[in-house]
Design goal:
Layout: E1 2-8, H1 14-23, E2 28-30, H2 31-41, H3 43-53, H4 66-73, H5 77-99, E3 108-112, E4 127-132, H6 135-146, H7 150-157, H8 163-166, E5 172-175, H9 182-207
Parallel strand pairs: 1-3, 1-4, 2-3, 4-5
Helix pairs in contact: 2-3, 2-5, 3-5
Length: 209
């Protein structure tokens, strides 16, 4: 089974692309979703986050105070790095555990992460997909979705690598600019990955005594 990463900057539409892959029967590990779950459910992780960012990081019922944390880390790269050092190892362990329960006949699975390239996770995967879109379109999408100002969005975008930096590190690119059709792009990559999976299985069979 191949491991495939997928990423894209805020407003690129990577979640929509993942929904299409999921409809094709491909399992998706949503790193952002599971990171939030781990930050709330894992007592050791909660303790470390409170030690780093303060008790305001959580509401009384251990629900993550996302707005407070976002305000703390998006203007402080040192805090952001330290938070990532707490959360990412736990997410990595969780993703490995999740992978062990996938059906063996799956050609590949996808690990979705907004910071796939920034954290170096992409190096651990067989192939990586980057979802791109012009920044002006991404900003409009974020404004509509989150109600943030242009200045707030710019500050958050500046925390992520540019598409120009990530494109050379990716194996496939999906353009979500509102003009190119998404389904043909996804289906093409899907067929290629299924072919690669069969090639990998064939090589594995060749070396079995």
């Amino acid at each position: 089974m191949l491991s495939v990463g997928i990423s894209g900057g805020m407003g690129s539409g990577k979640s929509l692309i993942c929904q299409i892959f999921n409809l094709l029967g491909i399992p998706i590990y949503n790193s952002d979703y599971h990171a939030k779950r781990i930050m709330e459910d894992d007592e050791m992780v909660r303790t470390e986050i409170i030690r780093l960012l303060g008790p305001e990081s959580y509401f009384a019922d251990d629900i993550l105070n996302k707005k407070y944390i976002a305000n703390k880390i998006f203007n402080d790269t040192i805090l952001l790095t330290k938070l990532n050092q707490i959360v990412h190892p736990a997410v990595k362990r969780d993703a490995e555990y999740w992978k062990n329960y996938l059906p063996e006949n799956q050609p590949y699975f996808i690990r979705e992460s907004a910071i796939l390239f920034e954290t170096g996770i992409y190096k651990q995967l067989d192939y990586n997909i980057l979802v791109t879109a012009p920044e002006s379109i991404r900003i409009k999408r974020i404004q509509k979705r989150d109600g943030l100002s242009s200045e707030e969005i710019k500050a958050r975008l500046d925390q992520q690598w540019t598409e120009e930096k990530k494109i050379p590190l990716s194996d496939f690119q999906i353009v979500n600019d509102g003009e190119l059709f998404l389904l043909p792009q996804v289906l093409k990559i899907h067929q290629i990955l299924k072919k690669y999976s069969l090639m990998q299985a064939g090589k594995q069979q060749d070396i079995v005594p």
